[in-house]
Amino acid sequence: MAEEKVIGTTCASHCGGTCVLQVHVKDGVITRIDTDSGPEPQLRACLRGRAYRQRVYAPDRLLYPLKRVGERGEAKFERISWDEALETVAGEVTRVRDIYGPASMLVINMGGDLSYVHNGRAIQRVMGLAGGFTMPWGLTSFGGGMYASRATYGSFATANNRDDLLNSKFIILWGWDPATTICGTNTAWYLVQAKEKGARVISIDPKFTDTASACAHQWIPIRPGTDAAMALAMAYVIITENLQDQKFLDTYASGFDQFKDSVLGTNDGTPKNPQWAEAITGVPADTIVALAREYANNKPAALMAGIAPGRTAYGEQYHRAASILAAMTGNVGIHGGDAAGRAWESIIGGYPLKMRSPIKVPNPVDDVPEPPRGSPTSYKASRVHYNEIPDFILKGKAGGFHADCKLALVVNCNYLNQFPNTNKIAKALKALDFLVVMEQFMTPTAKFADIILPTTTFLERNDIDQGVGGAYYGFVNKCIEPCGETRSHLDIGRGLAEKLGITSYGDQNEEEYLREAVSRSEVPDFEQFRKEVIYRLPLDEPYVAFQQQIEDPDNIAFKTPSGKIEIYSQHWAELAQPDIPPLPQYFEGWETPNDPLAQNYPLMLITTHFRRRALSQFENLPWIRETQRQVVMLNSVDAQARGIAEGDMVRVFNDRGVMELPVRVTERIVPGVVDVPHGAWYDPDKEGVDRGGCANVLTKDAYSPGGSFPYNTGLVQVEKV
User: Fold this and answer.
1) pLDDT tens-digit map of 291-339
2) Architecture of the domain defined by 143-343+563-575
3) 20 to 30 Å CA-CA from 708: which of 317, 468, 590, 640?
4) Has this prediction a pTM greater than 0.90?
5) Is the Cβ–Cβ distance between 19 and 38 less than 8 Å?
């Protein structure tokens, strides 16, 4: 009998953390998965990582290339060889490129379980070398936070390491639920310790989250999409009571006088006082006053600006206002404070790690002038926002786009399920000439493919990932051989390049790419890193964003036009766009209770994340499906008015779609608001009613002026079935 081996690796499932897994393997088969048992602070895996064995060996795992034999969306496929699959894809790429031009080909790539080497760049590289492709723009998770952080601080990296929360006296969790979404391994653990040390913790959220239940001293319910108004009202209290850190503002910030005039209403006659905000947010004026005083008077204080309030119609305004509160109170660049940029920090943000993907992506289609100064990161004429992809496919040049989209490659992204207005996306996918999907399961998106290319999981390849909210790298050790005929992204990219006759793709293998990445990083020894799995950067104290600028302002400036924290954004002023003003403002979003649409759809929709899923991953695993049921959360006031009781089947609907699912009647959500958790798989019946509970059946395919995705802006109605 073969001896059981225990292989250390790190989890790369894009769940919000980077945790240690101890994978037990016997005769080439995973028998069980444990987690970190080393010295503190351990990087312990959640239920998703611990259940990954069932994902690898799931009976519905895609193990062989498939070709569609039915109608798009029917999920009727037949098995084919890799040779036929890649020949078919190469033939369609050549045909579409030669007839319609390379910009007619679209590559849709998201996080999935991808890391430094095995990621969408391997496919983008071959498509770039084949002539180019249209690249979408937009960051689904934190686009508003990225845009606002760049305007305010000139940087995307705005967060302190999570262990610095232990230095905080006061912590505001604003739209932030790390007990569910992880937000960096050990984040919840540090929050609990901070509370035990005496820090006062406040949660601001339309929902009484698990983090609020475990950590918060006070829950402040708020209407979705109104967070900027509350932040401005807090600024009003701080200014009128002279609680701001004026010395800090004079030294490190610019534009405070203009902001002061705006908040006091000097310019428009509307003071942004707590009474004004109460009418908008539903938060009592006295509560706003008390919170503003506590935040200003309990330094150091960490305002953890979660990304959920930024995923709204004008989400970047909330992020701007939160950052300015941090500057006003002098909590930027100090231990125990926080710059109040986006709180979820990963590959683009957090500790400024040096490592970058070694795979280069040329793209002639994207070789166009940069966007105007201050524009969202990827506003190029050659790109389309992810929420515009359906119109790009359905309308093309006739709709004002730069090309007619005919072909799409989807790389480890459940695009149909995870982006707004799912029914419209389904219509668009049916209109494509050709669709390739690289996947591990028959997701709602894969059902629409012409060719499916089965990919390996992270337990079947070597790679590197990095800590979220912490200064460390993780080595992803290959634990077993690939199941069936699955292939890695790098192997698929190289195989497609060969079929296209591309000789310049490069012959670097996985090992060579990994060694190149490590050689350009802080990691001193590749072999030791691989063996120990985790490399922690040697820090004498927790990392603090902008600490250098605060401690040495004469020599180290912020990367903004003024070299300071820009309360008045010069970038945004140069745009001269009314909906992207240089000072943060509250804009009422579309589909609010004041919209005439509310007569038919009176309830505000939020789409929170689920502990048992990582976005839409793990939805099909029985072990963890047992832990939570997909339901719509409805306040008892709204339920009683509709004759709805706990457990009833209800219909949730608007003009974009209809779903039926069970209801949970609860006091844990604000009256007038419903929560359909994000990530459940789209499963429409013959009448088009979604039985899976896919929240994006109901969301709107628009985006904020800064490119944010409005997952938490929309109106619905709920009725008993």
Assistant:
1) 999 999 999 999 999 999 999 999 999 999 999 999 999 999 999 999 9
2) 3-Layer(aba) Sandwich (3.40)
3) 468
4) yes
5) no
